[in-house]
Amino acid sequence: MTQTPPSDPKNTRATVSHYDDPVYYDHTYKRRRADVDFYTALACQYDGPVLELGVGTGRVAISLAKAGVLTTGIDSSVPMLNHAKSRIAKLSKKRQERIELLPGDIRNLRLKRKFPLVISPFNVWMHLYTREDVEAACKTVKAHLRPDGVFAFDVLNPWPADLARHPQKIYKGRRFKHPTNKRLHQYAEAFRYDVVKQVHHIYMFALPEGSPEEGWTMEVPHRQFFPEELKNLLHYNGLDVAERYGDFERNPFTGDSDSQVMICKLR
User: Fold this and answer.
1) 219-235, pLDDT tens digit by residue?
2) Short-list 248, 169, 207, 192, CA closest to 7
3) What's the pLDDT tens digit per position in 76-100?
4) Which of 33, 79, 126, 133 could make an S-S bridge to 222, C-beta 3.0–4.6 Å?
5) Would you say 136 and 103 are in contact if contact means Cβ atoms under 8 Å apart?
6) Topology of domain 32-157+225-266, CATH
7) What are the residue boundaries of the structural domains of the chain, listed by start?
């Protein structure tokens, strides 16, 4: 539990590991609603159809469908897409018909369709680890955005104190009951910030009570985008920031904000 997982230069294994258990994922983030409400209100404003890059388990897409908005959701994780399909199957037929799910990578997706609104919620862009990744994702957005359309996404605001945490320290968390097997687990986290690549590695450890040998680890690498850096990356890739907020209630962005909530237009 105290050992750092092996090196993964491209963060491929680590990123995937966080999305291998969509039931646990939904259970973990079930109280996260502010971003869902924000993107739903935005989608209603633009009246769809909406392209969602990184649809995950359908947290936002299902809310959009309930609001009457047509949504095409893209994700590269097969487990997440399959779980999203099972969730959507429980909706009314009319709502099911409003959601289209497709496998795809936001760095090379080309649907040959234009949308008035493209969204990428819940830190999806923090999985773009290199300049080339960001450039490719921006090309995808531009390829699918109408001339007067809007691209909205959010990333965390880097906190120096969080990035400076000692990589050998384990931070003990609360116990939790896994939603699938109902077993109690002891939870803990560790952190390692790669200063050169600006990637913050979050390691999540879970030990089933009574069977610690069955413990499991997930890693979430998050590319850190500092505010001016993010604006510049967008600008030089043909997207200008029209609005920037510090949370999903549209409060002004400040140095104390937890998130950077961005609304962009084609430059």
Assistant:
1) 999 999 999 999 999 99
2) 192
3) 999 999 999 999 999 999 999 999 9
4) 126
5) no
6) Rossmann fold (3.40.50)
7) 32-157+225-266, 160-223
